[in-house]
Amino acid sequence: MLYLGTSGWPSEGDWTGLSPRERRRRYFALFNSIELTQTYRRVPDWDVVGRWRAYAPRGFVYSWVAPRYLSYRPGGEERRGLRRFLRRHKRLGRARGGVRFLVPARTDATDFSDWLEMLAELEIPGDYAFDVVPDLVELVEAYGWIATNRPAGWQYMIDREPKANLDGYAYFSSLAAALRYQREVAAERG
After folding, report:
1. Which tens digits make up the pLDDT trace of 64-75?
2. Whole-angstrom Cα distance, residue 105 to residue 153?
3. If phi over 0 gives left and psi between -120 and 50 gives alpha, with beta otherwise, what is residue 27?
4. Measuring CA to CA, how many Å separate 178 from each of 34, 57, 99, 184?
5. How far is residue 164 CA from its own chain's centroid?
């Protein structure tokens, strides 16, 4: 299945004056997923995650952007922070989508390789996609995870048209782009 939506809650046009409840209701009627960008700034509390899970209609999933405090170097503090984040994400249950990791371009390949091994050792399964420089793609793919915007066995696309025959996630920065793609797919399917 392809999950389609926006990266962040829409706020342009006639969405500006909507209450959070009205915004969710309208969004859920249009899309089957959202990438929550606020998780980059702050790991949500357990009760917030529980509310998101309760709000999600059947078949809807939330993807998260990994927190900015990650260093992508292995270590005890890094392991605790990563585990904390991923356990919260796992709490979404049936409403759990992918996780996008924003890996800085200056990340050392050896440190990152060790960090990926640490992530695998946590044994918290998930659809993990990584924004990485081309030199680090092979390291990610060795674990069965993918690089963003580089479809493999599945896909996690940001502001790019997804491959029609692959499962995964497609998020657009603008509501107009997400709706345009959605209409194109609907027209193709007749």
Report:
1. 999 999 999 999
2. 24
3. alpha
4. 11, 19, 19, 10
5. 19
Phi, psi of 43 (to 5 degrees): -75, 125
Tokens of 6: 């926006």
Q: Which amino acid would we find at residue 89?
A: H
- d(C-alpha 6, C-alpha 37), whole Å: 10
Residues of the chain falling short of pLDDT 70: 186-190
The whole-model pTM stands at 0.94
Neighbours of 130 (CB within 10 A): 25
* 29 CB-near residues (< 8 Å, 6+ apart): none
What is residue 95's DSSP assignment? G
Give tens-digit pLDDT for 33-56: 999 999 999 999 999 999 999 999
